Amino acid sequence: MTRTPAVDPTAPIRGARRAQRNRLTEQNSATPAATRRAARAAARDAARAVTPRVTVRSAFAIAVVVSLAGTVALPAVAYPGTEGTTTAAQPAVPGTATDAATSAAAAADTRETQSLVVASAADGVALDRASYAATTPEELASIEQAKAEAERARLAAAITNGQLSSISSALPIVGAGGVTRPLPYFNNFGTPYAGHKGVDYMVAAGTPIYAIADGIVIESSESGPGWGVYVRVAHNINGTSVTTLYAHMTYGTRTVQVGDRVTAGQVIGQVGATGRAFGTHLHLEVQVNNSYVNGESWLVANGL
Predict the structure, then answer these.
(1) Which pLDDT score, from 0 to 100, does residue 173 have?
(2) Which of 34, 164, 243, 268 falls between 20 and 30 A from 179, CA-CA?
(3) What is the CATH number of the domain that holds 249?
(4) What band does 64 get if pLDDT is binned at 50, 70 and 90?
(5) How many domains does the chain divide into?
(6) Would you list the DSSP string of the chain?
């Protein structure tokens, strides 16, 4: 019996592959050396073009890894007594010995950095209004007003009791040029008569009356004997005691009271015709060392 040889089904495929390899081998052997070198150079250039992308990806991956490591890293904690050393803090698990030790260390560190000192006992010293200063303009003005009123009351009491010598030290000393006229203007002088101790300046009602120099008010009244509404002021003119009296003012126009300090040119009232007066005018009396002098002559002697 004649056997039929077995047929290999893959033989055609293997044959085709051998034929293709043979053709490639023939082509390569026929390709010039320069062409092969150019092919290898093109392959290297292609590899270099791919390398930067690979490098960027690698750098990005490294950065992500570093950032993740930073988020999970625990800071080093130096507890009191361990200066100069650095110990990595371990996560404290609630309810464990590590948790208790960490809490105690944190509390000790807080006590080291934050402290409150409390006096053992208060001294019980009572505060006095005079022991601290005012802080607002209103308080300062109130204090100054209170001082002025107290001084005025003291001077008024001394004046009322006839103790004029006790206020001499309080009188401001008026030097040269410290005297002014009692009126902004006047029309003419009144006619003198026997027993008349002052100078009459004829002027319209309501004209302002000025203090002739710095001084202290020693009399102020709405009903003087014959003077009507009047004010008297004490002065120290170059060391000399001088008093001036302003009479026949209009009712309700006085601006000063006994004990008030006045300055030269300060308005103390307005011209009127109260008391024994004939027509509106200012009756001015001047006394130097308790002696009456002619008021106008005295003003002229002082350069007015």
Answers:
(1) 86
(2) 164
(3) 2.70.70.10
(4) low
(5) 1
(6) -PPPPPPPTTHHHHHHHHHHHHHHHHHHHHS-HHHHHHHHHHHHHHHHHHHHHHHHHHHHHHHHHHHHHHHHPPPB---TT-TT---BPPPPPTTSHHHHHHHHHHHHHHHHH------SS---PPP-GGGS---SHHHHHHHHHHHHHHHHHHHHHHHHTT-GGGGGGGSPEE-TT----SSS--SEEPPP-TT--SEEEE--TT-EEE-SSSEEEEEEEEEETTTEEEEEEEEEETTEEEEEEEEEEPTT-----TT-EE-TT-EEEEBB--SS-SSSEEEEEEEETTEEE-HHHHHHHTT-
